Structure formats: C-alpha cells, structure tokens
Amino acid sequence: MPDGPTITTIAEHAGVSIASVSRVLNGLPTRPETERKVMRAADELGYVRNAVARSLKSRRTHQIAFAMADIGNPVYLAMVRQIQPVLKTAGYRLVLHSTDAVVADEIDVLRSLGERYVDGLIMSPIRVTDDHLKMIENARAPVVIIGLVPDGTAVDNVRADSREGVRLAVGHLHERGRRRIGFLNGPLDTVPGAARDAAFREALEECGLPYDPALVEVGDFYREAGAQAARRLLERDGDVDALMCANDLIALGALDVLRQYGKRVPQDVAVVGMDDTDLAAASWPTLTSVSLGSAERGRAAAQLLLARLEDGGRAPTVVTVPPRLIVRESTLETS
Amino acid sequence: MPDGPTITTIAEHAGVSIASVSRVLNGLPTRPETERKVMRAADELGYVRNAVARSLKSRRTHQIAFAMADIGNPVYLAMVRQIQPVLKTAGYRLVLHSTDAVVADEIDVLRSLGERYVDGLIMSPIRVTDDHLKMIENARAPVVIIGLVPDGTAVDNVRADSREGVRLAVGHLHERGRRRIGFLNGPLDTVPGAARDAAFREALEECGLPYDPALVEVGDFYREAGAQAARRLLERDGDVDALMCANDLIALGALDVLRQYGKRVPQDVAVVGMDDTDLAAASWPTLTSVSLGSAERGRAAAQLLLARLEDGGRAPTVVTVPPRLIVRESTLETS
DNA sequence: GCCAGCACAGTAAACGTTTACAGTACGGCT
DNA sequence: AGCCGTACTGTAAACGTTTACTGTGCTGGC
C-alpha cells in the first residue's frame, strides 16, 4: 500500500504549481492548457483528494454523527434509514455512535464534538440531565436532539407526541369496550417512560376510567422485560382485558406470556404496542401499535441539521411529529 | 460557537512551547512543574484535541467504514450490532455507508478510501464484479469482505456457508416427510442468490429428490417480492408441501400468501427461512430459519480488520462461519 | 575548574490542502 | 512607444498537530 500521489506530485508531473493544481481540481477559472495538463497528470497518477488535509484547512469534515442508545432497537434503525439518505444526498457521511443508554457515554459523545471530526450531531438521549443540556447548548458543533427537552432549551429539537399517542391507544381500547386496561411501561427516569406514564393517567381520566396502580407495571424497554412485567401483572390480577405497552418489544414479550397463560388475543386481552416497528406487522397475532413516526423524526432531524449548517444563525426550531394508531389483529375481535 | 482553544493558546497561557504542550498531552516525559502548568491551562480553557489535525499528521483517523446494501435489512443490522462494540473498544469510530446494492456506489466507496478519511473498510457487496476485485486488491486501505469472493483473491474474507445452510434446511424438510419442496430465491446474479440456487440443486440430489423447475421462483430479497413469488408458484402448482426461502423476508411474504390461499403452516406447507433474523421469532407461526451467523460474521470481520491494522503484513485470512438450523413452528407439525 | 552527559524545553519542519497576495505576459489603447 | 487592464500563474502562509533536531542549564566525575 504505497503512499498515494499528492497535489505536489501532480504539480511536478504537470509542470505547474500546487496552487494551479488545487484550482483546477476545484473548478476555478484556469487556462484550458493548464487544466488539461493537470487533469492528465491526475488521471495518470490516480490522484484522490486527501479528505483529512482538506478538512483541516476548510474546517468542514462532511461527516455527521448520529448517537443513539442501541442500534438493535428498531426505532433507531428506522431513524438511521431515513437519516442516511438525506445526509448522503447532501454530501455528508454518517458516523454512528451507540451509547447503550449510558449517560456518561452520551456526555462523551458531546464532548468529543470538540475534536471536530464531525460537522454536526443528531442525538436521541434516553435520559436528559442538566449536564446534557448544558453541554448541548454549548456544544462546539450544531446539535439536533430527537426527543423531549425542556421548553426554552436553545436547541433544534424533534419530538414525538407520545402523550397523544397513548391517548389514541387508550381511547381505541376504551371504544372497543375494554375497561380494565393494564399498562406495561419502561423506566420512569427515562424521558419516554415518564412521558408515557403521565399520558396514561391522563388518557384514563379522559375515558372516565380510574387509575389503578395494580394494573401498572414498570420494567424496561426490552422483550424479556416486557414478558416479566406481564407475568407480574397477570399473577396479581387475572382480570385485565387489555394491555397498553410502552413499546413494541414489551408488547411482544406480553404476547408470549399471554399465550403461556392461555389468554386469547384479542378475545380475552387486547394488546397495543408502541413505535409501530417491523415486528408489529410480523407478530402473531399482528400487533396494533401507535406509530410515533420514527422515520419522519429521523428525516426531520437530518433536515434540521442541514438547515442549521447552512445558516448557523436561525432560531432553534421544534418539530413535533404527530402519532398515528395502526390497528391490527391484536385489538380486533372480528379477526 | 466561538473557535475552541488550540495547542498554541494553551502554550501561551502556560508560558511554554507548543511542543511541551503536545508532549504533556501525549504523556511523554516532562518535568512535573511543566506538566502541571499545561494541564491547568488545558483544563481552564476546556481544551479538546483536534482530531483532524491529529489525523493529518499521524495518518490515522481512528475511523472504520462499513458498507452494506441496505441498513433496513436485519442481516446487516445484526452485523452492525456486533461490529460497533468491537470497533468502539478498540478506539475506532464507525462510518456507515448504504449502497442500495448499486454497484457504482460500492465502487465509489472503494475509491473514496483514497481520501483516507478511514483507516479501513468492511464491505458486504451483493454483487462481486471484476472491477470490485481489482479495486479491492489495490485499495489504499485495508479491506475486509463479508461474502463470497473467488478463491485466491488477496483479501481478508468472512464467509457464510449457505450451501451447507440450504442442505440443512432441505434435509430437515425431507426428514419430516416433505417431497415437493418449492424454492423461492433472490436474483441469480447476486452472490447469495447464485450460491443458494446451486446449493438447492445439490441438496435435492442428496435427498434423492428430482429438481423440478416448476417449483422454483426467482424474485428479490424483499417481503413483497417473496409474496409475489409465492403467489406465482402456488398458481402454477397447488401441491407443494414445503417452501425453502432464500431469506426470512421472502419467507414472511410467503407466509402471508399461504394464509390467503387457506394453506395451513406447517400442516399443509412447511416453510423455512434463512438468516434467522428477529422477524423469524416474531412471526406467525414462528419461522424455522437457517442462521448464517450474521452476528458472528460481523464480529469476525471487525476482528480481522483490527488484526490487519496491527500488522499489515499478515497473510489474507478466510473465516467461514458455519450455519445452524433453528427449528420453529413453521416446520413442526406437532405445534 | 573543566568537560561530559543528562534531562529537559524550544525551534522548526512536516502532514496535504486552500487561498490571499504578488508577479508576469500579453493585447489593446492612446 | 508607453501604459493599463486582463487573465492567469506562482509563492507562501495557514489550518492544528507531532516530532526530529538543536539548545540550554545542571550535575557529577576527574
């Protein structure tokens, strides 16, 4: 792997100065004769621009980072799938960070922005601490946050409306005659966990149903955790007729357990998931799920970031993506 | 977003030369007094090393690229999930490229290696042309290929054994008494498509079954394409008692169609997928699938690349990951 | 008392670009 | 013929590091 040719090599071969080479390569006005010489030399030597040197001088890396908790989570996957093409067409590369939902790792990513290896960052923190906020506002490069941040935070922000999402789901269950609606949530100290908890209480109230702590279980956002939570709930109260799950993975875990307990879905227990991941359409029975617009949020975040890179002066923007209820077999008696 | 402090700023504040600053920052022997001054200035100013300048001088970017056809494909996802932590612990960042299975895009990624924005590349090309091979062997940075390349190609290579995988699956179907085994494949001009086609013929022969072109359909590796292929097959021949699918997505599409045609799975038709993605365990019925070890292949590729970065002189290595048959409901009558 | 050797610290060059500025050649105008 | 403007091209500095080499002041041995 011998060292490739540099602008200097080309200049020698073409018999011109490195400045001329650079100008030709960048399409600046040049005498046709010179241009030809340079292009010829470049072709013959198989020249490729050194991106690092270029970045150093131009202060642009044409890279953007996306930091999420876990690539395994289909929600983030859906985001990446949208972010990638948007960035690609704008001429940016995508650098991926998986923080495993560890706050210290997220802080680390934020700090590493100072290394200037990317031009900007899209981040979807699962917990938002004051440290985060401070670092985000003072970050050395533009940042877009996917998720809820306190109002007034000076940062571009893309939000899902999980409150409305939970209302849609609970409303749907209520309409279909369900009255003892269980709730399987993720950790309350996470942003989505807290939001969904508050939303669930609200939604019950709107339907005129009482909030019964015995029907609520808190676990984690994984399938196995969902199964465990469902088991705990069923052991305590065999009479639930619906399960609202904070997550499709939790819902899949719940489906497994319901099957073990001989409960028919949806006849005995209706189940609603959240995020409308690919798994929802593939499960048995297919899973009614609240789409929080992961794909749209990803795309919006990428576009916000590009807009800010264009114009650093624009006011921070908040985009809220509306939820949609995708009804499938797990809540439809008739199926 | 004011410009951050550089090594020069720190040198001024600490009253030393930039060389000393650099030495302290890199842990080279320094008088304690000097070290203290530098560290203090660095802390006060919130200094962060500029990764770009560093890379230019050191010729290391600590970035590695992974190029795949489509992040949406759970197989690649499984790879990314393994690659990411391996690289992270070794101090490398992950740059993602999605080529949409367009050969020109893959060539582009290969060429862009000359820009030296990464130290190495892991690539999983879906079609391997001579152009690819030539560029891969002459690449300006170490490359690891996930997938089949011609024997003797001078490149680190991680392979699945889809031949053996198909044999496992067909053998399993045969053992369970299936005799009219259909085959839903992806494009024959792709590496996996061609390999699976050859393997299917071989496997039938081993079982003493005839190869019947009427039982074979070629489509694409997507769910919808799988559904269409299944439909074509069923319209032509209502008597298949098993479907071997080149892919879990194809298998899911086939399950949809079988349901529409009133065929029970597995009683009337047994179905086997391939890749053992998350979807296989979530589907209805759960899907028997051949695991080609996507996760292991990802991890192996990352490790091979790291090994080569350590020692550029080592001989090209080929790692073959053995397949495993994961039996689930879609082939088990008793369920 | 002198010099060798040591332990640092500083100077400057280099990595490969981009770009401000200075220089040159030439054609056309007066 | 002299001058000016035009249209380039070349020189050199800069981006922020790392590092080879040179310099300096001290310690210790004779």
TrEMBL record, chains A, B:
PANTHER family cross-referenced by the UniProt entry: HTH-TYPE TRANSCRIPTIONAL REGULATOR GALS, LACI-RELATED TRANSCRIPTIONAL REPRESSOR
Domain HTH lacI-type: 5-58
The protein's name: LacI family transcriptional regulator
Keywords: DNA-binding, Transcription, Transcription regulation
Pfam families: LacI, Peripla_BP_3
Superkingdom per UniProt: Bacteria
GO-annotated molecular function: DNA-binding transcription factor activity; transcription cis-regulatory region binding
